[in-house]
Amino acid sequence: MAGALLEIDGITKRFGGFLALDRVSIHVQAGERLGLIGPNGSGKTTLINCVSGALPTDGGRILFEGRDITRLPAHQRTRRGIVRSFQIPKPFTSMTVLENLGIPLEYAAHTRAHGAAAGALDILKMIGLDAKAHLRPAGLTQIEMRKLELARAMAARPKLLISDEAMAGLSSAEVDDILAILFRLNEQGITIIMIEHIMRAVMRFSERVVVLDAGNRIAEGTPAEIVRNPAVEKAYLGE
Amino acid sequence: MKIRGALAVGVAVIGLAVLLAGVRVNPYVYFAGYVVLQYVVIATAWNILGGYAGYVNFGTPAFFALGAYTAIFLLEAFKAPLPVLILGGGLVSALLGLGIGYLTLRLKGVFFSIATFALSVVLQTLIINWEFVGGAKGYTLIRPPAPFFGSWAVLLFTLMVGLAVVTVLAARTIERSWIGRGLAALRDNEEAAECMGVPTLRLKLFATTLSGFFLGVAGAPFPYYVTYVEPASAFDLNYAVNALAMPMIGGTTTWLGPVIGAVLLGTAQQVATVTISSELNLLIVGVVLVLFVVLAPEGLTGLVRRLRGR
């Protein structure tokens, strides 16, 4: 597929004798909303770690905007526009919410220090965290922590946002809250890969869904197609 | 306070020191003051890595002694003047710092600390077996008459005031720059910092190198101060303990913390040495450190911030 924003070509990752990813290929178009699902241990997070640069790959290559980024360190991938949020929020605990956003604004988006505060406040308003701007992360609730994680990712001015289980453990209303935010980001032109176990959310959000199982890509299609796919059913429920 | 204001304060402190050098109080005051100021440099330098970046270095004696022994080498080989010794000692220790910076690629937390401690032991063994710088029997320096102030104690005291001012200004500048903010991010969460665009390896190398440089600078005038240097005194465990305890007591997140900690603890140790016994030093550090870890884990500056309700 020509002109894809992100091209993952035959990525392989081994942990000792365990093959976590076996020549996985996924292409993501600019502006797309892609869902990535699979049972626990299927390699979703490993794949994300390889794309974001947290883990080196053992084979294959990754292209972003047509350029090979397979060997780039994580912080340079972030600067090019690949930004991830973490499954378990990892805030900068000694800083206020506002200062948390200042780091990516300064380091990834290259905003001058004095412009960073205004930019950060805009993002917090959009996410709905502006009232907590001057609190430390320790004073936030679980949903606010997830929002901070997304807000901080936004501050890096991503072209591609990888949301790693941003909704796990949230209530139904809170899931809708986060979904609304992700839809709004996508409308602004940000490509989004969503990794999620909450099927209701993935199926509503994604235009296309890729299914991983035991390090292999076993299915791909629209949410409606995936739901009817016998291979997917087998992966989740067994024979 | 902007950079220029801080610079003015620094110059004022040095001016005051020169004035004090002219006053000529009891020579012991200069002698003891030198040690306290030396600890201001050491604590501030240690804090650039330990406080700002969160990597606890137990190898302070290695860096301090490397500064001192580089100075001895330069004296023996080239009869180099004092400013060259300080710069040379700093640069060689900076190289060692760069080396332990690469250790952070593989070693985090307590494992990094153990490695730096081991480094100190290894380096001491090497120095003991190096005859050129005195080996195990030590090195004796016969000082020429002091070129300024008519006394080495006064001259070295004034010099240490200058070095302390430079070190503290450097630490303060880093703390308030983009580098300081990046270091704080990687201290809080290294993985998240890297993913937010912070070049963590480069910043860590910068911190270890600069911290090493100033620790070496603190050690370089040591041969002139004591005139007899032997491995056991240059690699004294006191440096490792104090370098860690002083910032902990003052507060590790700001430049002021190590300064307060070094002045308080350093002075208490000097007073105890004269009035009670020199063996009591470590006991004081131990007791105070335990108290602070339990009662004020963020140090004095953190305690003040908390009392002010922030």
Structure description:
The complex is a heterodimer of chains A (239) and B (310). Chain A is globular. Helix content of chain A is 39%, strand content 25%. Chain A has helices at residues 44-52, 74-80, 97-107, 113-127, 142-155, 172-187, 199-205, 223-228, 230-237; strands at 6-15, 18-28, 33-37, 59-64, 67-68, 82-85, 160-164, 191-195, 208-213, 216-221. Chain A is built from nine helices and ten strands. Chain A starts with 5 loop residues before the first strand and ends with a helix. Chain A has a six-stranded mixed beta sheet, sandwiched between helices. Chain A has a four-stranded antiparallel beta sheet with strand order 2-1-4-5, covered by helices on one side. Chain A folds into two domains: 1-81 and 160-239, Rossmann fold, CATH 3.40.50.300; 93-157, no CATH class. With 239 residues, chain A is α/β, with parallel strands linked by helices. The mean pLDDT of chain A is 89. Chain B has 310 residues and is mainly alpha-helical. Chain B has one domain. Chain B has 15 helices and two strands. Chain B has helices at residues 3-23, 27-53, 60-78, 82-103, 109-128, 152-175, 178-188, 190-195, 200-219, 222-226, 231-234, 237-250, 256-275, 280-295, 299-307, and strands spanning 139-140, 228-229. In chain B, strands 1-2 form a two-stranded antiparallel sheet. In chain B, helix 2 (27-53) packs antiparallel against helix 13 (256-275). The longest helix of chain B has 27 residues, at 27-53. The A-B interface holds A 52-54, 73-75, 78-79, 83-84, 86, 90-95, 99, 102-104, 106-109, 113, 152, 155-156 and B 178, 181-182, 184-185, 187-189, 191-201, 253.
